[in-house]
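Project channel, design review

CF: Before we commit to the Maribacter algarum constructs, I'd like one complete example in the thread so the newer folks can see what an input/output pair looks like. Taking DUF948 domain-containing protein.
RD: sounds good, go ahead.
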Amino acid sequence: MEAVNILWLILLVVTVLVLPYLIYLLHKTWQASRSIERYFKEMKEAGIGIANNTEHVKALDDTIGVASGILGVAGSINEHSDTLKTTLAARAEQIN
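CF: and here is what came back for DUF948 domain-containing protein:
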């Protein structure tokens, strides 16, 4: 019976000493999980902002495509500018 009381006393002392440490560890784990949750929320907001700011890239690609066509037409006009100048000068002389 004395051995049982000694075992209970040892378990009681271990429990009293270990339980606060376990509670401390659980509290630190809970704090870390809250920080991770907050960081994920911030990352989600940043990701949404990046996605919203990069959806205009397609519009820029379309603009580049149109600009390439405009450059082709401008080059064609430049090639025929002498013909246009000669024709307009001849018509101006006919009017005067």
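RD: helpful, thanks. The chain has a mean pLDDT of 88.
CF: The longest helix spans residues 2-54.
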